TrEMBL record:
The keyword Zinc-finger does not apply. GO terms for cellular component: plasma membrane. Pfam families: Lig_chan. Keywords: Cell membrane, Glycoprotein, Membrane, Receptor, Transmembrane, Transmembrane helix. Coiled coil: none annotated. It comes from Aquatica leii. This is Ionotropic glutamate receptor C-terminal domain-containing protein. It is a multi-pass membrane protein.
Amino acid sequence: MGKLLNYRNCAMLMMELELQVVKFEVGGDIHVNSIATDLVTGNIRASYVLSAGHFFTKTLNSLIRSRDESVTVLTTPQYKPGIQNLEDLVESNLSIIASPCFEEFYFSRAETSNNIYSKIKNQMQFISLSYYEMGKLLNYRNCAMLMMELELQVVKFEVGGDIHVNSIATDLVTGNIRASYVLSAGHFFTKTLNSLIRSIDESDACVSKSINQMFNEDDTLAFIYDEYMEIEVPKIMKRPYVIARCIGPTRSKLDRSAAYIVHLLKQELLNNTLTFLRLSSFWIHKQSPNGRYLVIINENHSQDIQKIFTFFWNLKIHKVVVITQHNHDHQIHTSNPYDKKNYCGAYANIIRSQYCNGNFTINILKNYTDINKCGITFLTFDDNNYGLKAFFEDFFNTLAKKTNGEFIKNTTVTSKTEVISIMMQPIIVTSIATDSSPHIKEFDYSNTVMVNKIVIIVKAGDTVSPVKILFVIFRTEVWIMIILSIGITSLSLWLISSIDKQQFSISKFGKTWLDVLLATIWGYFVLVPRNIKARYIIISYLVYQIHIQTGFTSNLVTVLTTPQYKPGIQNLEDLVESNLSIIASPCFEEFYFSRAETSNNIYSKIKNQMQFISLSYYEMGKLLNYRNCAMLMMELELQVVKFEVGGDIHVNSIATDLVTGNIRASYVLSAGHFFTKTFNSLIRSIDESDINKCSITFLTSPDENNYGIKEFFEDFFNTLANKTNGEFIKNTTVISRTEGISTMMQPIIFTSIATDSSPYIKEYDFSNTVIVNKIVIVVKAGDTISPVKTLFVIFRTEVWIMIIVSIGITSLSLWLISSIDKQQFSISKFGKTWLDVLLATIWGYFVLVPRNIKARYIIISYLVYQIHIQTGFTSNLVTVLTTPQYKPGIQNLEDLVESNLSIIASRCFEEFYFSRVEETSNNIYSKIKNQMRFIDLSYIERAKLLNYRNCAMLMMELELQVVKFEVGADIHVNSIATDLVTGNIRVSCVLSAGHFFTKTLNSFIRSRDESEREEEQKQH
């Protein structure tokens, strides 16, 4: 697009933001007019995209809503309330199906004054059905059913899915059911049975209360029984649960919570039962070690409770509660491995016991803020890991201080008896190392410690020789033009002087050449000839000399103070062209260069240049100094390389984000480690370091990275991260599901065509509008104005006329005063006076000041006027000399319609903006539509068309930056707003549907917009 706009006379339809991309792609500014297309296309509304159901969606939308109060309702499925109570049920006159046993117990008595009862009774139909048949009827028939509350769970289980139903209490009609055992009247065993039931009730109440205190309401409980224990489940269970006995296989998997109730006949069966659990499908590798365990032992007088706790602690399981029985009394036991007398979990000397028949409380540690001098081991495997030894030591000393622990350094594999063992591991979050990576599944990872960029290091360009440095001030062409101007001026003055004196002397030409050269350097001539023609040449040359001196002085300081080097290899494209070998550690091959070649041509070429060799940092430094090669390494490693070779290496560092992304360094603990939550909490609390932030990742595809508004998105997400105590992570590849919060940018077109019926709307959560991205038509701008005409750009034509008139009037006035005084009128004298005034206009002084008072007043007034001229001239001169001047070209939609240029646009624009029937009343829209040509082109193809074809392009404003970047040059184009035809695109953040962060993000966006509006009001 950029090339086309620069070299072809055409227009382009694009989004307003695309124009910035086009400019960026061609590596410079394109002089274009932007024509609004609102009338033809409307606008695009861009949103951020998250995976479906993402927890961050709600927060993100809330933050965006707080900015502009434009609320988009994209939530969970909404249902009508339906029948909510007995009154609604009576009014509906639905048949109520129930088992025949209900008729005998509840509906066999005569009708009473209770009107509800009689009406419900009239609606009853008593039929014997299986639970499966009940489920089918509820799903496919409009009816009601009377059943026990627990039976509803059985019905849902039988039909293998969730039934969307309302449950209506019938206490007013039926009361509740109390189930009892039945014996013959006066049976001898009744008293004993009741005593046992009371004991069971106490046990049931103890277990139920413990469950309520230990587990969340939405936890799925796993009841694990030893091979001898009868199945016992609390009478009232509000939570979903699964049951397993250690002699049978398990097929179900727990994927949301790790909540276990281990029921044992006696304590000796604990080891076998826990071994079964750890090998079963109920065990969640990364959650179960940090799960909650309620151990119930039916054995009376269990003596060795300490062994139960130490058994779990040795497995790194700390959240354990034990219920034991003593006679008919039940006790609750808890213990903290970090109590001082428990010696870091080696012994369970301190156990807190409470009776169940009282008001007991269960306190389970969430964060370990005091570990009583227990050890925290950091395992590096290398005594000088990553050259950041001091950084890690400082971090862990701070961690130990905050937790009252003791930091232990270790470079070898630690004993399994270590209480807390942590190691540093760089985790590569790319499309290669995702959740399928064995690293992700085997360990717990802390919050990000640091973001370490991956770069390619190449030897920089050689030093530019001192002789060549002078030519850096101006391009070679400029030096040639300066020398030619000196030669031509010298020749002209020499010829005029020689003709006047009728004498041609070569030595005289040499002297004239030196005079012109001195005038070029110092700005004046030693002797000014009397010849009028020569004086005009001198004045013209001195004006030209001002231009030379302005450019020379502005560049001289930079050239003299900054060492000059040849550019060398600056980017991935240069590196590919150089065909240098790129040396890297073998670990990079596994993570970044093991996948099949993709459509990314840069990636495939870089991969072909890679050589994977294990080298020490010292060897890397030597190779960079003495071999012509490149190296792939982490940015921090470059500091280590420089340190190892004992000096500064002059190299260029090339970002590899497009190929590799960045490395996120995290601390690693064993999967499900009890200390992970505490560790992350402490990392967040250490504000002095940069490793305390949860990640907020902004995901774009590599081809759409930057979008010319890189700075905007970085600023937006950095502000969001500060507000939520997070850390902004940029990424261009598919990220791991272990990311805390992931967002991506997606341009979503909200028009009358793309409404809620769009599949995007159903799959993602969209934040409030972040920015409005204009759609523009890009056309090649006007041709460059010739250098002769450029001089007149300094002032408008009217100003130049006034300056010439003022010179003429002043010259005439001074000549008349002088002539009247001397009683002599001479035309040649008038010419000399004119030259004196012209010189005074340029240099600000008169060579000779007349004695006449009137003439002196005129001279003083003119010199004051000259100050104004010089001020305006000087202030505009640099701009005119440095900024190319162009003709206006096509500026608006009306000009574009008159030009009848073809307007090229992506096919997606046709669907959204140009598929409706032409509106005859909207003349602009219909004419623009007739000029449209819908072709899918790459950014580089668009740039070439704009440069070499006379056409226009419709695109987003940001896309123009991409087009400019792609062609690596400046495209001179006009950007035409299309608001009248297309409207604008509204950009939003996109999160997965139902994301927890959506509300927070929208709240942040609203607050940001409010603060911007307040700032604007203050300025006004």
